[in-house]
Specification:
about 800 residues, alpha+beta, six-stranded antiparallel sheet, about 30% helix, rod-shaped, disordered N terminus
Length: about 800
């Protein structure tokens, strides 16, 4: 093996001995020391140069000591040797580099301009190298770093003193300073003084000049910056934890992020166990007492498959007194145990499975850190080491507590969010219809999906039976998420049902609903610091309201800032209905307009909230086109179509916003199930009308309802003739279960029930109607009003 050194070898005797004990290199300095030329010794056993028995093989990578060597002339020369073992590298086999400075080779310290550069009293490690980069002087601090006395290594190069790749790197930087005359700072990692772990060192190099300004050597100071390096690493780890922990509002995911963060940065195996708040009345306690039951939320290991774990995530375990988990939670502080301290791991006393894992994987240190936030105890993180040889230090404890504290806030936020989400979802489900009513006008199917991350919102839908076989469909969306949005949704849904019950037209209903939202906004707004009324609150909503009449097969719609419905007529393509947009609810003072369209038998209407078409991966217009394509594949099943729409438009990870979807298929009422008569303004002609009604019921095979229907028709027609205005018209509508009697007149005065006195001649008609029918009422029309009453058919079956 041949090596080329760019430095003068005259002052150093150097030899290279292979791991097999053979001499592979012999320099000129070695020849001057012992007299043997290179060709006489290279390739022969190095032991042949020893004047006495060979010393014991070195136990480490470096050895220093005095040995007797055989001179060529036969005499024995005592020589102090420094030997470094270099492992195989870059294709070269392992070998020992043996060096020693030649006596008298270094210049005298007297009158030496470099001698004063060594500051013996300085606490900083200082060394001075001459123009040949040979060590001229070093102080005691540097000797402690090197681990060798100055008198033994004076005259050697840095690479020869250190014998490590880092030493060669430092020597190259010394040469840069020597040739350029500019100072240089270099940071390296190096084991010194028998340390198990590498320390971080900052080597500061500066040229040394004589009185004329010529560079005569290089001064180097070494500063141990391990603590600063570790502080930077801890700060980096804490900052990284702030980014990596709490990316979701999911308790389990957050716990797993904490475990992932600690392995392998702090520990080899980490478990995260959380308390079950239900065992403490729904809220985590401030402090717990042993025994304590914990649920495994997450764990992580440097080993594949986490073989150290004895329970799986989701399982619970009871931790008794004297277990690290229970003791740390009871004391509310971090506890550490280490086999190096002579403290036995207390876990085997109460869990044999853990005892077996401790022995198998050599777990020697553990740290139990309570997970606490906002004065509540949420659980505990247990960090253990078995691959890393060192025990947990006080700095490790501080770092683990800092990371765990940050994670605890995220876990508590996720826990509170989950609790509020569950509460809001329960409220939402209680406010939404459990089932949609079955009506003769249409069949409907619905879906509601809460937002995957933002929380439960205020989307709602409803199907409301109205008088005259008509039915109302409504879909709405309250701004915001959470319990407040769900509660507001419930109030608006109740208001819509109330307004629908008095048969308001869609545009009038939205006007009243707009007033309600304005009042809710005023209630949610507060007063400012001066006591003056604050601005309006943040209550807002959109809504679509539609009324379908199966007799006329026409649908009247109005919307308040809501997406228009999509209609799929039989044999046609899906299209968005042209409904005037209208302002969102809560702005106030702006009008709403309605439109009326004809819907043939079997038309499918799709009403939805904007969460269905708003997605990050595509724009709303593309989503609407995708919705149309999906509805075009409708195949007679509303339920399957609902599922297909959600599966096609929503991402696999869940919708970013609440989604409400209502599909309805219309049915028309045949003309054979409707009969109407114009009523003359003569009370004496009511009897013929009653007879026509009885005959019509017989034609419908509904004779069993004739008696009740005759009484109801008589009262309603008589009241219309007596108190209403012409023209007057009577209409009968029936389906399989209901008979509806309607009387139209041009008066806008609504009838009302009253208690008749003993001698009153009237006032009992509507009371009789109310007793004989399942429900009755009135609705206003553009021409007047309609009084209606519904009679159940086939009552004998109940």
């Amino acid at each position: 093996m041949s090596r080329v050194y760019p430095f003068d070898d005259a002052a150093t005797a150097r030899a290279v001995i292979g791991d097999d004990g053979m001499l592979v290199e012999w320099n000129e300095g070695a020849r001057r020391l012992l007299g043997h030329p290179a060709d006489a010794v290279v390739g022969r056993p190095a032991a042949g140069l020893l004047a006495a028995a060979a010393p014991a093989p070195p136990a480490g990578p470096r050895w220093a000591g005095t040995v007797g060597l055989r001179h060529r002339d036969g005499r024995t020369v005592p020589v102090w040797l420094l030997a470094h073992h270099l492992p195989p590298r870059d294709g070269h086999p392992g070998h020992w580099l043996v060096v020693t400075p030649l006596p008298g080779a270094e210049p005298s310290a007297a009158r030496d301009p470099l001698a004063d550069a060594g500051l013996d009293q300085s606490p900083c490690a200082i060394s001075v190298y001459d123009e040949r980069l040979r060590l001229r002087r070093m102080n005691e601090a540097m000797a402690a770093v090197v681990g060798l006395p100055q008198e033994r290594v004076r005259g050697l190069r840095l690479a020869e003193i250190g014998g490590k790749p880092q030493s060669e790197e430092l020597e190259r930087n010394l040469l840069r300073v020597l040739t350029s005359g500019r100072p240089l700072d270099v940071e390296i990692f190096l084991r010194t003084g028998g340390e198990d772990r590498a320390h971080a060192w900052l080597a500061r190099m500066a040229p040394v000049r004589d009185a004329e300004g010529r560079v005569r050597g290089v001064c180097m100071t070494a500063h141990d910056v391990t603590d600063n390096q570790r502080a930077r690493q801890r700060l980096h780890l804490v900052n990284e934890a702030s980014v990596r922990i709490g990316t979701t509002l999911d308790v389990t995911r957050t716990a797993q992020e904490l475990a992932d963060m600690c392995v392998p940065a702090l520990a080899d195996f980490v478990t995260i166990d959380l308390l079950d708040p239900q065992e403490y009345g729904g809220e985590p306690p401030a402090r717990v007492t042993a025994p304590v039951r914990l649920r495994r939320a997450a764990h992580q290991s440097v080993l594949d498959g986490v073989p150290e774990a004895v329970i799986a995530p989701g399982q619970t375990e009871r931790y008794p007194r004297s277990s690290p988990q229970a003791d740390a939670l009871a004391q509310g502080r971090t506890l550490t145990t280490s086999a190096a301290d002579g403290a036995a791991d207390p876990r085997p006393a109460w869990h044999g499975g853990r005892d077996e894992r401790v022995r198998r994987y050599g777990i020697h240190s553990s740290m139990s850190v309570p997970i606490q936030a906002r004065g509540l105890t949420l659980g505990i993180a247990v960090l253990t080491r078995h691959r890393r040889p060192e025990a947990f230090t006080a700095d490790d404890v501080l770092l683990a507590e800092e990371i765990t504290a940050r994670a605890a806030v995220c876990i508590d936020n996720a826990r509170r969010y989950s609790r509020e989400r569950e509460t809001a979802l329960a409220l939402q489900r209680s406010l939404l219809p459990r089932t949609l009513p079955r009506t003769a006008a249409l069949e409907a199917c619905s879906r509601y999906l809460p937002a995957a991350r933002a929380g439960v919102g205020g989307d709602w839908f409803d199907v409301i039976p109205l008088s005259g076989m008509r039915v109302a469909m409504v879909v709405g969306d309250v701004v915001g998420h959470g319990i407040q949005a769900s509660a507001t949704m419930g109030r608006l849904r109740t208001a819509v049902r109330t307004l629908a019950d008095i048969d308001l037209a869609p545009d009038e209903l939205l006007t009243h609903l707009d007033d309600l939202v304005l009042r809710l906004s005023d209630e949610s707004g507060g007063a400012d610091a001066s006591g003056a009324d604050g601005g309006p609150g943040e209550v807002g909503a959109t809504c679509l309201y539609a009324v379908y009449d199966p007799v006329s097969r026409r649908c009247t719609l109005a919307r308040a800032g809501h997406p228009p419905p999509v209609v799929l007529r039989p044999g046609g393509a899906p299209e968005a209905l042209d409904v005037p947009a209208g302002p969102p609810l809560g702005l106030g003072g702006l009008p709403f307009e309605s439109t009326e369209v004809e819907l043939p038998e079997g038309t499918v209407l799709a009403l939805y909230t904007d969460g269905l078409v708003w997605a990050r991966e595509r724009d709303p217009e593309t989503s609407r086109e995708l919705l149309h394509e999906t509805l075009a594949a409708y195949a007679d099943s509303l339920d399957e179509t609902c599922d297909r729409v959600l599966h096609t438009l929503l991402p696999s990870g869940g919708a970013p916003d609440d989604v409400a979807l209502l599909l309805a298929r219309t049915h028309g009422l045949p003309a054979s199930q409707v009969a109407s008569w114009d009523i003359p303004a003569d009370p004496a002609l009511v009897a013929p009308v009653r007879k026509q009604v009885v005959e019509q019921l017989a034609a419908w095979s509904l004779s069993e309802a004739s008696f009740t229907a005759e009484l109801v028709v008589s009262e309603l027609v008589t009241n219309a003739i007596r108190y209403g205005s012409h023209p007057i018209r009577l209409r009968l509508i029936h389906d399989a279960s209901t008979l509806i009697c309607e009387v139209f007149d041009s008066s806008h005065t609504a009838p009302h029930l009253r208690r008749a006195k003993v001698f009153d001649e009237g006032g009992r008609g509507l009371l009789l109607v109310a007793q004989l029918t399942q429900r009755w009422g009135s609705r206003h029309t553009a021409e007047g009003k309609t009084i209606w009453a519904e009679l159940p058919l086939f009552e004998e079956d109940h």
